[in-house]
Amino acid sequence: MKKLFVVILSFHAPQALAACLKSIEAAEIPAGWQKEVLVINNNLKNRGFSAGCNLGIKQALGHGADAVLLLNQDAVVEKDFLGPLLANSSDIVGPVIKFKRCGKWVYDFGGKINWWLGRTTHLERPSVQEFKSSKIDYVSGCAMLIRRPVLEKIGLLDEAYFLYYEDVDYCLRARKAGFKISVELKSVIFHELSERKPLAQRWELAKSNLIFINRWILFWRRPIAWLYWFLISVKILLT
């Protein structure tokens, strides 16, 4: 019997967490798999997303996990979302993430990286049917299934990223090590996405973006990326 561990990081959102847990409890698990849920309490000491998730991943691996699903506390999953995810042959796979923006449904299919500016772009469409399969650079850490061989070979999330870009970084490290990454179109979850991030989160976004640029953008492109980062960070922090 294979083991799937769902790791959920909890941080000051008890109602959202309760809804998430209720949905994951009701989620059907395919034959040959068993499901365990680990909730990591980040309320007393905010370790950051990467460090908090890493605590759960370590516990999952210690208990024999064959796969780990990182899941945001403000996500609600479809009852049948696990089957397609686990049937997907990719080493890292994410579901389609459904959310509302300005009252309209939007579907997120992972993202691409601008290798000149060091910025990410989510591939978004108004429906699943309108997405034409294409190569993606990463899947969102909002819901990311990671198989054990990936974790054993490249390790945990990089804790230098307190919040944001840790998922992008991890997917790039995995691909560099020869692993396959994809989004599973038959698996859908709902994410309660806020229209506007608090200032503290915007600051973490700017910091993590700079770390990403310095680690992944070619040195001769970095001056352009740094300039863009400065301009966009001022805009993000002031608006």
Describe this structure in words.
This protein is α/β, with parallel strands linked by helices. It has helices at 14-26, 49-62, 82-87, 148-154, 166-176, 199-216, 222-238, and strands at 2-10, 33-41, 67-72, 75-77, 92-101, 104-114, 119-125, 143-147, 181-191. Strands 1, 2, 3, 4, 5, 6, 7, 8 and 9 form a nine-stranded mixed beta sheet that branches. The longest helix has 18 residues, at 199-216. The chain starts with a strand and ends with a helix.
Low-confidence stretches: none
* Tally of separate helices: 7
Helix-strand sequence: EHEHEEHEEEEHHEHH
The 3D shape can be described as globular
Task: Provide keyphrases for this structure.
single chain, 239 residues, alpha/beta, 9-stranded mixed beta sheet, globular
